[in-house]
Amino acid sequence: MPNVKSIFLTKLLIFLSISLQSIHCQADVIALEKADSLFNSRSYKEAMEIYDSNFQSGIYSPAMLLKMAFIAEGIGDNERATLYLSKYYDLDPNPQAISKIKSLTGQSTLVGYEVSDGQRFMIFLTEYQDYMVGVLAVFLVFSIVTSWVTGRKSDKTQTFWPTILLIILIFGANNFLNGPRTGLVTSSPTFIVSKPSAGGELVDMVEPGHRVRIKSSKDIWYEVEWKDKHAYIKKENVTRL
């Protein structure tokens, strides 16, 4: 018979690690509320410092990205404003964001902003990732308590597959649930070529504002999807989203 106490302690450690992550998220929420308060009082520089710190840590929301774009445009940094709006478009694809990016970059048409139904579904899952992990964590706690109570009342062999499955789902949602890998063209002009070398055939020459879907990375090059074709672009000309 498995050692129920050992198994319980193992699950308890997993639960505590999830709890610590939740506490960290709560601290982020408090910081963002402070930044929002600073933004509303027009203390844009101080608000931007907090927003940017969270953005670099991968913590952001559509509303936060819009505020960052507003601040960046206000100080004349159109490149950063375009970056934030492009990231915002990943979370909330809408024509208004594209129109604003065209205005900031001086483009009449933009490539790379098409979003398929499958991509929209992945964006949805990514947006609600924290909620999904929270729900799974609740079920995990219920599974831990049930196993502990059952183990105390019965000497029968227990099944731990539901708990194991929940642990796998939580791990997968935390580490592998990511949206599409995209990049924003930020250099002028940017050459898109057929091979990852200076001798590659020129496929297109573009200005900042366009987006590419990143397939892989090789030395100083990204392999990208450009107009439904595979091509290559130098990393220095692209900012990852």
TrEMBL record:
Keywords: Membrane, Signal, Transmembrane, Transmembrane helix. The chain crosses the membrane at residues 131-150, 159-177. The keyword Hydrolase does not apply. Residues 1-27 form the signal peptide. The keyword Signal applies. InterPro entries: TPR-like_helical_dom_sf. This is SH3 domain-containing protein. The lineage of its organism: Bacteria, Pseudomonadati, Bacteroidota, Cytophagia, Cytophagales.
